[in-house]
Write a structure and sequence with these properties.
The complex is a heterotrimer. Chain A is of the alpha/beta class. Chain A has helices spanning 43-51, 78-86, 106-116, 122-135, 152-164, 182-199, 210-216, 234-239, 244-252, and strands at residues 5-14, 17-27, 32-36, 58-65, 69-72, 89-92, 170-174, 202-207, 219-224, 227-233. Chain A contains nine helices and ten strands. Chain B starts with a strand and ends in a 10-residue tail after the last strand. Chain B is globular. Chain C is of the alpha/beta class. In chain C, strand 8 and strand 9 (209-213) form a beta hairpin. The model of chain C has no long low-confidence stretch (mean pLDDT 93). The chains are: A alpha/beta, B alpha/beta, C alpha/beta. Chains A and B meet through helix 6, helix 8 and helix 9 of A and strand 1 and helix 2 of B.
Chain lengths: 256, 227, 289
């Protein structure tokens, strides 16, 4: 089976400082990969390099495109990469405001990707947008409201709807539950679990919260100082950590 | 169906003075379809550890663990996940669930993961829950607030929802009264009858001798603790 | 010594502007950056239009200047006399006699010919500006033909008002490629943009952009399949000349709520009245056909 995403030797330096070094892994369709580490571990750098927000100094990020087979996204032209970002890929930002248009209604936010790929029937667009608001548990009569009037959790769910409306195959998530209240986090994670399962999504989730990976990720990579120190099945890495840093991380979490 | 070959496990606790604990070594045995093999041995001998290794939850330091034709020790994560979904069932000692999920959905989950439609999966879940005497009024609640015995029965229902060819059962009858113990033992016998290969840990001797046709003493594989 | 160079601008500047105009004509609807000069009127008073006119005028041209359709408002008068003084060209209020027409926010009712140039004054050339404030991003959107956001704006209109409420500066797609802001002309004028025999030039002085539509260019107003574009106007006839098909201004005539609708294009209205048409404002008149 061809991997959906094949990351090979991705390296990014900030001057003399290592952002991430020589990261390689293959992600298969339907897999959810968690990347954990503390601040400065390089996980966000890695995510941004993979998603095309940062240019790595070395490495390849090979995505199995629908039309052309496996292509190195780093060598793609900008129009191609931007098109990918609107169709097969999605990026859920930590801060919902970075992933939404705050001056546009909820319906417009969700409909934008549809309109960007050619949807031209207002009624259909609105219906799809309303349907998606429903799926992310936002009351459908908020469809014409702007996200500025939404709570943090609602904004995050709107961001998810906006990203998933075109049925992407790969979703990048950067601390999707960061900054949210615990109960709101819980609801969001339940939603994500359901959507990932129902839509057969593949996802790469960066987080410092082990509970998030326990809940969402099949596989786990632990990063420290820019390098991957351990990788494997999520339950195996969390229940039987081998590397000293992984052991430290796991033992630091309070079991409530 | 299940084959272990020279399997060993060591824990290295880096943050506690790099203490090295050799738990077991040189484990070899097979379990054929229709067998139920009991792991025995004193507490701490490594029974649960071995079971977790067979499930892939713990890393195996050396050796091979074959479930069907897949060697768990060498397999890719996605192969292990596929194995756990289709072939290898595991009922752990304590129920571990995603919070906030209703009991019915907890039990239906393994079937949903296999692509079984919602209605059919829930029907089967209802049947099992009824069989295990979990009252209907509890089906829409999360099992996290249930009693120990109820939780264990939910755990078992989930474990038996899909007809796995290989099953690992860790203390399946603990915390159960006589009536429910009987039901669980029947479930195990039915699984054997359909050809499942089962490995179980039972501290209850009567249960063990009822459903198992063989015993393996894990303490034979436990290295002597250095004096 | 107060002699001006012909049409105020020096020859090098006119050359630079003409180059920009040629680029604009070669790529219809594409916004060409140009080095807009300091003009003797402030930004927001038509400096872009004036620079484009100055660059295309020749001594043989006849110039007409209109502001919201009228030749006699302050701005129209000002700019007309500016060119009378600095270029000494013939000026006129009659559309059919002009060779160069500078306009603020209207297209003349009378169809133009291949011998004419229409110069528009443009405040904000970027149709996406109010949704996407970053110039770096809007340039990419035009370059990569990523216009989903434009439809988001129209979607928002329908969601908020039940219909596309944009009534002026209604965005258009040019030759199936660039999305363009036709300047704040009423949407009633949009159909005139396409397949026009005259050359249309758009100048934005403060924003330093020039764009153009060569003759007979395909221009389509954006819409949705289920909310098609309508070139609507007030459902009235001109009170002065009775015209049913010209764009109307609404004039408050007294403090008792009296109002008069009359053609915004003053030359058009005067022409009809000269030919004998009378509108309902004249007692006893019939509404002319």
């Amino acid at each position: 089976m061809t991997p959906l995403l094949s990351v090979q030797g991705v390296t990014k330096h900030y001057g003399a400082h290592i952002g991430c070094a020589d990261v390689s892994f293959d992600l298969y369709p339907g897999e959810v990969m968690g990347i954990v580490g503390e601040s400065g571990s390089g996980k966000s750098t890695l995510l941004n390099c993979m998603a095309g927000h940062l240019t790595p100094d070395a490495g390849q990020v090979i995505f199995d495109t629908r039309g052309d087979g496996p292509r190195d996204t780093l060598t793609m032209s900008e129009p191609e990469r931007r098109m990918l970002g609107r169709t097969d890929w999605a990026f859920v930002h930590q801060n919902a405001r970075d992933g939404l248009r705050m001056g546009v209604s909820a319906g417009g936010n969700v409909g934008e990707r549809l309109m960007a790929v050619g949807a031209r029937h207002y009624g259909d667009i609105r219906e799809q947008a309303t349907d998606w608001l429903d799926r992310v548990e936002i009351d459908s009569d908020r469809v014409d409201d702007r996200p500025t009037t939404f709570s943090g959790g609602m904004q995050q769910r709107l961001q998810i709807a906006r990203n998933l409306v075109t049925g992407p195959r790969l979703v990048f998530m950067d601390e999707p539950t960061g900054g949210l209240d615990v109960s709101v986090q819980a609801r969001l994670l339940d939603l994500l679990r359901g959507l990932v399962r129902d839509m057969g999504l593949s996802a790469i989730i960066v987080t410092h919260d082990l509970a998030v990976v326990r809940l969402l990720a099949d596989r786990l990579m632990v990063m420290k100082s820019g390098r991957v120190v351990e990788a494997g099945l999520t339950d195996q890495v969390l229940d039987d950590p081998q590397h000293s840093y992984s052991q430290l991380l796991v033992s630091s979490v309070l079991q409530v | 169906m299940i084959e272990l070959q020279d399997v060993s496990k060591t824990f290295t606790l880096h943050n506690q003075g790099s203490a090295v604990i050799e738990v077991i070594s040189g484990v070899s045995f097979t379990v054929a379809p229709g067998e139920c093999v009991a792991l025995t041995g004193a507490s701490g001998a490594g029974k649960s550890t071995l079971m977790r290794m067979i499930y892939g939850n713990y890393l195996t330091q050396s050796g091979a663990i074959r479930i069907g034709d897949v060697d768990l020790v060498q397999a890719e994560p996605r192969e292990v996940i596929a194995l756990r979904r289709d072939v290898l069932g595991y009922v752990s000692q304590f129920l571990r669930v995603v919070p906030r999920v209703p009991t019915l959905d907890v039990v239906a989950e393994p079937l949903r993961a296999l692509g079984v439609p919602v209605e059919e999966a829930q029907l089967r879940a209802q049947k099992l829950l009824s069989q295990l005497n979990i009252p209907q009024r509890l089906w829409s609640l999360s099992p996290t607030t249930f009693s120990g015995g109820e939780q264990q029965r939910v755990n078992i229902a989930r474990g038996f929802a899909h007809a796995y060819p290989a099953m690992l059962l860790d203390e399946p009858t603990a915390s159960l009264d006589a009536v429910n113990r009987e039901i669980v033992l029947t479930l195990i016998e039915d699984a054997r009858a359909r050809g499942a290969a089962i490995i179980g840990i039972f501290h209850d001797e009567a249960a063990r001798s009822r459903v198992c046709n063989r015993e393996i003493d894990v303490s034979e594989f436990t290295p002597e603790v250095a004096a | 010594m107060s002699d001006y160079n012909f049409a105020y601008l020096d020859e090098q500047t006119k050359r630079m502007i003409r180059r920009a105009i040629l680029k604009g004509l070669a790529i219809p609807g594409y916004q060409v950056p140009f080095a807009s000069r300091e003009m003797p009127m402030p930004y927001g008073w038509g400096t872009g239009g004036v620079q484009v006119s100055a660059a295309v005028l020749t001594p043989d041209d006849t110039l007409k200047v209109i502001d919201q359709g009228a030749d006699d408002t302050t701005n129209a008068v000002s700019i007309r006399s500016f060119f009378e003084r600095t270029a000494e060209v013939e000026t006129t209020t009659a559309t059919k006699e002009a060779t160069v027409i500078q306009t603020r926010h209207r297209i003349p009712e009378k169809p133009l010919s291949e011998d004419q140039i229409l110069v528009y004054q443009v405040p904000i050339p970027e149709p996406l500006r109010f949704l996407e404030p970053r110039e770096s991003e809007t340039r990419k959107m035009h370059a990569l033909e990523e216009y989903g956001l434009m439809h988001v704006k129209l979607y928002e209109d329908i969601a908020r008002h039940g219909h596309i409420a944009t009534s002026y500066a209604y965005p258009v797609k040019v030759e199936g490629r660039y999305v363009m802001d036709p300047s704040p002309i009423p949407k009633f004028d949009n159909p005139k943009l396409g397949d026009m025999p005259a050359i249309q030039l758009f100048g934005a002085g403060r924003e330093q952009r020039i764009y153009a539509l060569p003759p007979y260019t395909q221009v389509v107003s954006l819409d949705f399949e289920d909310h098609p574009f309508e070139a609507s106007k007030a459902d009235q006839v001109c009170g002065l000349c009775g015209a049913e098909d010209s764009y109307l201004d609404e004039v408050i005539t007294d403090d008792k709520g009296g109002r008069l609708f009359c053609c915004s294009d003053t030359d058009y209205c005067a022409g009809r009245r000269a030919r004998g048409y009378k509108g309902p404002a004249f007692p006893g008149s019939e509404v002319a056909a």
